[in-house]
Each structure stands twice: as C-alpha cells, then as structure tokens.
Design goal:
Distance between the termini: 15 Å
Number of domains: 1
Bound molecules: (4S)-2,6-dioxohexahydropyrimidine-4-carboxylic acid, zinc ion
CATH superfamily: Metal-dependent hydrolases
Largest sheet: 8 strands, parallel
Order of helices and strands: EEEHEHEHEHEHEHEHHEHHHEEEE
Radius of gyration: 19 Å
Oligomer: single chain
CATH class: Alpha Beta
Strand content: 15-25%
CATH architecture: Alpha-Beta Barrel
Length: about 350
C-alpha cells in the first residue's frame, strides 16, 4: 500500500492518493438479465472478485444453476473486464450435503448462503429449521466451505429493529457452538452486540459490513419524510450501532471485511406501496468506505479491510494488481437506467471526497 501526497503543478492544494491491492466485495446482488448488465460494470470497476448472492427467482440451488448463472455473469461483464464472480449456493430445507460438496469440489461455488425462510427479498425458499440443517453444515465444516448467514429472526411479532439481536441469541450462537470448525460469515452486521459476538468467535467467524450501514442510522430512513431508497434488511439501527460499525471497520480487526450488499431494485419497486428491501450501493461503495477510514484517520488500515481480511478468511489467494483512489471530489449519477426504468444510486449526485483511479492488473 502506498500513500502519496502530491502537489499539482500550479495548484497549492495537496492531493492524496492511496494505492492498494485490488479489493474484493464479499457480498453482491447482481441479479440477472437487463439488471445484471446494468449494474455489473459498477462492481467490476471497483472490485476484482465478488461473492455473488444466489437469491434469484428461482434461487440458485444446484451446481447446474450456479454454473449457468456464472456463465451469464461472465458474458455480461464485457471483454475488457477481468471481474471474477465467486458463486454461492442457496440453502433450503432440501439441500443435500452431496450436492454441496460436489459444487465445492468442482469449484463451481465457494460458499453457501443461509437465509432464514422469509427473512428478506426472495428468501421464501430459505431454511425453516436451522438445527435441522446440521448434516449440510457438518459436511461444509468437513470440507472447509463457509456458510454465509443472513442473521435476522423471521417471527413477525419481533420488532424489526430487534430481529438481528434475536437471531444472534436464538440461532447464531448455538450454531457456532454446534459447529466449532465451520467458517461462518455474519453478513451485513448492523449492531454493536453482533460485532462483539463475531469478535468472540473470531477463530471461525467473521462479518461483512456494508457502506450504507456506516453512513445511515434508523432516523435517516425518516429524515424529512419516508426514504424508500434507504430501506434495506437488516434495517439500519440506532446511531450508537452505526458508530460501533465505523469503529469496527477502522480498527484494523481482521474479522471484518467488505460486503457491500449492493442490492438493486428498480425505482418502481422502491417507491411503491410496499417497498422492496435493498440499497444499490455498488456505484459508490469504495468511495464511501475510504471516506470512513479517512475521517477516522485510519487510511493505513483500509487495505486490510478492503483487500486482505476477506480473502484470508475464505482461504483464497490475495489479488495481485492494484487500485488507486484519489482524494479528489467526485459525484456519480443519480441513477442508472435499466430498460425503461432506473435504479437509484446510494449517494448518487452527492459530493464524494474520494474518486476511483487507475487499476493495474
Ligand atoms: O435489503 C436487502 N436486499 N437485504 C437482503 O438481505 C436482500 C437484498 C436483496 O436481494 O434485495
Ligand atoms: Zn444481501
């Protein structure tokens, strides 16, 4: 990692540039079809690899599903891109340990995603009884394949702001105890208490943290009126949790890494009577993360969070090549067109302090 402070000829202003090993996004929703083509360039511009979420309709449950989805992503990425999709399998009540092992052995997928049934977008085929998944998780433990968990309770009687905490106590902690050798990624952690649980089990547990949960708290969703484009699951929590997330990522702690959870939905699905959950953060993710590190005086810790911790946890090689980010004001478009609709970009048309620079392969 190199940090350069340069004086532009004729300009009295110092410009800082940070060059890091190329980063990865360990949690991406790319969707399919026209949406895939529209959003993939943003992820591919920022990241060398991405863990591709399997919550398509229908979900990616078989080795064949994952192989053909991977092929569609490769076709959509364009000839000049080297973006590598890392595929995942969607766990259901009917997942077979043998199919899981076959996809992993054939290097079609690198992990499996556990959605509690009904927890979020396209999670209705998810798992209804997590302890009953033990044979699948035991096989994953044996072969070293990580499980990626959407950690929210699904009982509609539980307050939505408490669903992550309820899941951690009722499901995650017992699961971590039942499977002490299983690699577990707690996806999009949103509470201070979740971070503590992850740290405590760091020997086999890690967490991704999104850019939007570092920027917004639950009040942001209601600031001046209802803001559907800030609604996602898990929903943003109180300010104290946002501050704990910022502290966790900028601490340099190796059990936390990037997972943008970029989750595009067209404007019509967001500005609707029943708004879909998801923030499209893919176009401003690195600019947002680096701003958080800069504000914390922790730029020296950014590379580990962006480019090392995740790969090490998954047991994958670090990327070669570099990406440079410049402390230079930037602004991205407000939205991206998808056929005759559009997807609103998180922090689109807002002043960003950092901009993306050169990629060296
Ligand atoms: O807000 C969310 N959107 N959370 C999820 O877990 C799923 C995602 C999506 O696929 O839209
Ligand atoms: Zn997600």
């Amino acid at each position: 990692m190199t940090l350069d402070s340069m004086f532009d000829a004729g300009s009295p202003k110092a410009e800082t540039a940070l060059t890091i090993r190329r980063p990865d996004d360990w949690h991406v929703h790319l969707r399919d079809g026209a949406m895939l083509k529209a959003v993939l360039p943003f992820t591919a511009r920022q990241f060398a690899r991405g863990i591709i979420m399997p919550n398509l309709v229908p979900p990616v449950v078989s080795v064949a599903d994952a192989a053909s989805y991977r092929q569609r992503i490769l076709e959509a990425r364009g000839a000049d891109s080297d973006f590598q999709p890392l595929m995942t399998c969607y766990l259901t009540d009917h997942t077979s340990p043998n199919e899981i092992e076959r996809g992993f052995a054939e290097k079609v997928w690198v992990a499996a995603k556990l959605y509690p049934a009904g927890a979020t977008t396209n999670a209705h085929f998810g798992v209804t009884d997590i302890p009953a998944l033990a044979p699948v998780l035991a096989r994953m433990e044996k072969i070293g394949m990580p499980v990626l968990i959407h950690g929210e309770a699904t009982d509609p009687a539980i307050d939505i702001f408490d669903r992550e905490a309820a899941f951690m106590e009722a499901e995650l902690i017992p699961l971590l105890k039942r499977h002490e050798g299983l690699k577990v990624v707690v996806e999009h952690a949103t509470t201070a208490e979740t971070l503590d649980i992850v740290r405590e089990h760091r020997r086999h547990c890690a967490a991704t943290i999104t850019p939007h949960h570092l920027i917004i708290n639950r009040t942001s969703i209601f600031q001046g009126g209802l803001r559907p484009h800030l609604y996602c699951l898990p929903v943003a929590k109180r300010e104290r949790h946002r501050l704990a997330l910022r502290k966790a990522v900028t601490s340099g702690d190796s059990c936390f890494f990037i997972g943008t959870d970029t989750a595009p939905h067209v404007r019509g699905k967001k500005e609707a009577e029943c708004c879909s959950a998801g923030v499209f953060g893919g176009a401003t993710a690195l600019q947002t993360y680096i701003e958080v590190f800069d504000e914390a005086g922790a730029l020296d810790r950014f590379e580990a969070f962006a480019s090392e911790n995740g790969a090490r946890f998954y047991g994958l090689p670090l990327n070669s090549g570099t990406l440079t980010l410049h402390k230079r004001p930037d602004r991205v478009a407000v939205s991206v067109p998808v056929e005759d609709e559009e997807v609103v970009i998180f922090r689109g048309n807002e002043p960003l302090a950092w901009s993306l620079g050169e990629i060296r392969r």
